[in-house]
User: Fold this.
Amino acid sequence: MKAIKISDNPRGLLLEWSDGFQGVIPFTTLRQQCPCAICKGERLPFDPMGGIGGRAGSPSDQSEPSGLASGEQIVPKDLFKVGSYAIGLRWGDGHDTGIYSFDYLRQLVENTSPRVVHPRVIHPKENS
Assistant:
C-alpha cells in the first residue's frame, strides 16, 4: 500500500497501491462490507440484501449492518494500522473489530464505483 487518504467526494477512503492502482471506497460500502466475524459470520443465509445486514438475532433489521441508520455513524472516527497488511476502522457507533486487509480493500475497489483514474501524460518527442 502506497497511500491511504480521506476523500470528500465521494466520502470515503482514497487508496493507492505501489503498482499505481487506485480508487475510492465510500464509507457506506466499507461499513456494509465489514469483514469482522460478527458482521460476516452472523448474517442470515437468506439475506435479501445480498450480504448487507441481516444479522442473526435481529431479522427485522435488514437495512444496514449492526442496525446502523446513517450519518455520522457510518463515518470512521479513527483509522489504525494492523501489522503491515491491513487497517482497522473505528466507526461512529463504536464498532472496531473489522480488519480490512489491503487485498480485501483492493477487491472492494475493483467491485465498487467510482474508480479514480488519472490520465497518463504522454510527452511529445522532440524534433531532431
